[in-house]
Design a protein that fits this description.
The complex is a heterodimer of chains A (348) and B (204). By secondary structure, chain A is mainly alpha-helical. Chain A has 13 helices and no strands. Chain B is 72% helix and 0% strand. Classes of the chains: A mainly alpha (348), B mainly alpha (204).
Chain lengths: 348, 204
């Protein structure tokens, strides 16, 4: 056994890139795809429950429904619209998926449980999430369809608008934590008070704005004018079928799960326990606490969709530019004053 | 050749090819996308230099926002293909002159630094044991706070000027007040009226 282990160690030392690739596939990507599959199932069950109907119940009592859907999509024919730009039409789903997956490199699941513990993790996340919009606008343009193009234009304008509010909200987190490293940001929220130390209290407006901007950034209801099925059929991916559509779907849900991870990490103490440390085992942090918090945020995504009517396009723009951005700027200043007066102590 | 050098040549080759594609491709959307690729590869090169803040800022600002707006405009204009390359030969000498001057300036700058320091350029961040981002942040907000704020004010003035120049107030335009819309109650819009039946009796 020891021999095998040492052999394994020398092997991984010789081919670090290959070992890294295996780790990347095993750790974030595979569980992420499975999580997306069950998240779609959860969505249908939760919304069914909220609308007093049953949701999927037939294939394996509903549990195997996502796999049935996946295989159906994979075996469907890929239709390519005439006069579409073939190269970009095929490239667009990949451009949507790659940033959605690569952002996970810096997301910690617990103390030390992170692929790449980079110092500028927060900036990296902002950069990666801002690139996801290329897949959407290219899909809309390359499809050579008016509906798809309208959806792409709406998505581009919306994502850029809400990125600013999101960025400002994260500036507040950065000031409060004194670090751009995601693990450091979580550690800055630890302390004797337990839940009282989380950034969601001193940064409450930024927390709310980040959560809402996260919903808008992922083009989810009630901000889903980019898809707007009653106006523009299905928006940017109306011409996509089969596996290409499945990739867009995967990217959108991976982004939702990403935002569900980021909100707890930035504002709700990440993997820290909500109870004070003196309470014994219940006060100890761990990935299970993060999972619980992620579950709450992910559930609220579905809840929003079942509850709110879709925003009108001009109201989305007004909310982003005239409401969120001024509030975030003011609260960044407030956070600065809090840190300056010593009411909030960053750990660096 | 080390792995890093190999990566450098790869990124450099992609960057040169992509920037050539920007000026030679005929479809403007393809040109804009090539420019995106150029920026992204440039960010990769900067990462190799351990200038992670600049690299990420380039991706965040130029790839994530500026080029998206650029593509937005190019797509809205709906130019299917650019008209040929008639201007190419006439612009070529001017372009070559600009490129030569820039190359000379760059070589002069690098040579001057090398002469002054007599060795490889020192990295202020690693000397202080800080990460590149942290060092930049500290330097910008302590030693260079005045130039930084002046730059910020100039940018704000530019934004205000751009809005002021393009904003045209047209009279008699109906606008909506969202606060008023949201405050509307049922009785403001709806009135229930009792209408008499066709035989004159009140409805049941």
């Amino acid at each position: 056994m020891d021999q095998m282990l040492s052999l394994f160690n020398t092997y991984t030392a010789q081919f670090p890139t290959i070992w890294m690739a295996i780790k990347i596939v095993l750790l974030p990507i595979l569980p992420l795809i499975i999580a997306v599959a069950f998240y779609t199932l959860a969505e249908r069950w939760v919304i069914g429950w909220m609308q007093v109907r049953r949701g999927p119940v037939y294939i394996g009592m509903g549990i195997l429904q996502p796999f049935a859907d996946t295989f159906k999509l994979l075996f469907k024919e890929l239709l390519i619209p005439s006069k579409s730009n073939l190269f970009l039409f095929r490239l667009a789903p990949m451009l949507a998926l790659i940033p959605a997956f690569s952002a996970w490199a810096v997301v910690p699941a617990g103390e030390g449980l992170v692929h790449s513990d980079v110092n500028a993790g927060l900036l990296y996340l902002l950069a990666m999430t801002s690139m996801g919009v290329y897949g959407i606008i290219l899909a809309g343009w390359a499809s050579n369809s008016k509906y798809a193009f309208l959806g792409a234009m709406r998505a581009a304008a919306q994502v850029i608008s809400y990125e600013i509010a999101m960025g400002f909200a994260l500036v507040g987190v950065l000031i409060a934590a004194g670090s751009l490293n995601l693990s450091e940001i979580v550690r800055a929220q630890s302390g004797n008070l337990g839940i009282g130390e989380w950034f969601m209290w001193p940064l409450l407006p930024l927390f709310v704005i980040y959560l809402i901007s996260g919903v808008a950034e992922t083009n989810r209801a009630p901000f889903d004018v980019a898809e707007g099925e009653s106006e523009i059929v299905a928006g940017f991916h109306v011409e996509y079928s089969g596996s290409a559509f499945a990739i867009f779907f995967l990217a959108e849900y991976a982004n939702m799960i990403l935002v569900s991870f980021l909100v707890p990490l930035f504002f709700m103490g990440g993997w820290l326990s909500p109870c004070p440390e003196s309470w014994g085992w219940i006060g100890k942090g761990g990935p299970h606490w993060l999972a619980l918090k992620v579950g709450i945020i992910a559930f609220s995504f579905l809840w929003f969709r079942a509850t709110f009517p879709r925003y009108r396009y001009d109201q989305i723009m007004r909310l982003g530019w005239k409401v969120f951005i001024p509030i975030t700027i003011v609260w960044v200043m407030v956070t600065g004053v809090l840190v300056y007066t010593g009411a909030l102590v960053p750990n660096a | 050749m080390t792995f890093e050098a190999l990566l450098f040549y790869f990124f450099a080759a992609v960057m040169v090819a992509a920037s050539l594609a920007v000026v030679t491709l005929r479809n403007p959307v393809h040109c804009a996308l090539s420019l995106v690729l150029t920026f992204f590869t440039c960010a990769c090169l900067w990462l190799l230099l351990r200038a992670e803040f600049l690299a990420i800022a380039l991706v965040l600002v130029y790839v994530g926002a500026v080029m998206v707006l650029f593509l937005f405009v190019v797509m809205m204009l709906d130019i299917k293909t650019l008209p040929g390359r008639e201007g190419f030969t006439s612009y070529l000498p001017a372009g070559l002159v600009v490129a030569t001057v820039m190359l000379a300036e760059l070589i002069g700058l690098m040579g001057a630094r090398k002469l002054m320091q007599g060795g490889p350029v020192r990295d202020a961040a690693t000397e202080q044991g800080l990460s590149n981002t942290e060092w930049l942040g500290r330097a910008l907000f302590s030693d260079y706070i005045l130039p930084f704020e002046i730059a910020a004010v100039i940018l704000t003035v530019a934004i205000v000027a751009a809005v002021a120049l393009t904003l045209r107030r047209r009279p008699n335009v109906r606008t909506q007040d969202p606060a008023q819309q949201a405050a509307t109650r049922k009785q403001d819009r709806l009135r229930l009226v009792d209408l008499p039946h066709h035989d004159g009796s009140k409805q049941a």
